[in-house]
Amino acid sequence: MALEIVVVLGATVLLCNAIAGRLRVAPPVLLLGAGALIGLVPAFHEVRLPPDVMLLLFLPALLYVESLTTSLREIRYMLRVVLLMSTVLVVATAGGVAWIAHEIGLAWGPAWVLGAALAPTDATAVGVLARALPRRTMTVLRAESLINDGTALVLYGVAVALTIGEETLSLPHIGFLFAVSYVGGVLVGLVVAGAGLWIRAHLDRPMHENLVSLLTPFTSFLLAELFDASGVLAVVVAGLVMSQVGPRVMRADTRQQAFAFWQLSTFALNGALFVLVGLQITASVRDLPAGGLAEALIAVGVISAGVVGVRFLWSFTLPYLLRAVDRRPSQRERRSTARSRVVMSVAGFRGAVSMAAALAVPVALRSGEPFPDRELIIFVTSGVIAVTLVVGGLALPAVVRWARLPEDTEVEEETHLAEREATRAAIEALPEVAERMRIPAIVAERLRLEYEQHLSHIEATDNGDADALDALRLEMVQYKRMIVVGLRDDRRIDDIVLRRLQLRLDIEELRLANRGSNDGD
User: Fold this and answer.
1) Residues 132, 138, 139, 145: what is their CA dihedral angle, to the nearest 10 degrees?
2) What number of other Cβ atoms are within 10 A of residue 434's Cβ?
3) pTM of the model
4) How far apart are CA 51 and CA 280, in angstroms?
5) Amino acid 121: pLDDT
6) Phi, psi angles (nearest 5°) of residue 364
7) How far apart are CA 156 and CA 167, in angstroms?
8) Residue ranges of E strands in 294-416
9) Per-residue buried b or exposed e for 276-296, using 16+ beta carbons within 10 Å of the residue's own CB
10) pLDDT-derived band of residue 16, with 50, 70 and 90 as boundaries?
């Protein structure tokens, strides 16, 4: 059955992503619905999503890539907001959900378990559904979802232990658990990243170096779990370290191979994860007691409203309190508009961590009695995930249009700045470098002319002639490729030569295509 699941998952991911653009619907919405429909097929009734698989297979890889591509500069700039949202907001959300769950009939223990499971936002969903947001808003959402898992999982562990009778409530003890989770996670992430960099320094093949890259997130997660620290935070720290140090130590061929690998693997893992969550939603319906579906659906609706409501309440209370206390000019620059906060409130998607936490709820208490309302916890968690992904995913584009967020041009401006300054510096350093390498003056002059031509192109990016020149270059790349393939077909060159030239032409085509797409964004 395992092979059938892999094939079905792959085909579903491909189909949903292929038609999502035509339907103008976010892929996770279709993937979630497809998973729920697949769960109705009798052959897939026994397919379950083990929490260990989600925590140990999906999350490390996905979180690592998210942290590699998150702006550390923007995290530092918005650090206070990120820390408050990933700690205090998580506790507030867990408490709000626990109170609502208790009001609708759950005991306090299971209610807090449910609240802790639903407290963190999902980095994967945020990365897919909110990618069109301005950079600063996107960075806050991603950083929040990368860090808040540590807070939520500590709360979850305490709530489960109290419910099954293994812990007694003690604020110092809970504080100790938080300290171990955060400090331990950071330390493990730093150690694993340092070890990975040291190993890379002694390797000289891209394949070997990228195997180290593949092992980094899983090693970070597993090592942190051995010390009862936050595996999620360890992965995030390791990824952030590599994002800062990697550009200095990785070779171009290694980086190109790594980019292609992570791009494909995270695309497949992301899609499969949403399908599996959809499968679990259908399974959770079957696991409910007879006649309990109506009450469970009401619970999903009420608690979904509570999750979103707490986030809106947070967005429209704490910022004003901080403004009243901190009136420094530097903080005024960080203020967001009310419409922007509405966008961030709508983008509070739940996902994989919440599902894994709900599925990991013990079957029995220490006394041997069944864990109270376990099936309801799993169903409500599945339902809230579906509501936030589907409703939030469908509503977010309309909310963004309503918010009229200012156009974010900083990335393009900074890209232009970096290219211009790097090229100018290279032209200035060229004579000295050529002399040091004993390169003939005529060769150095040729390169200087190339660089000056490139600089002229950069400085003319606002001119339509630059776009026309790139279009012509792109068309000529296609023409050269046709000629080279024709030479191979005429047996005048070997396939090995074709592949070598094809790679060079592909790199040139991608460079021109990416430059054109960036200019048009």
Assistant:
1) -120
2) 17
3) 0.84
4) 11
5) 92
6) -135, 155
7) 12
8) none
9) bbbbbbbbbbeebeeeeeeeb
10) very high
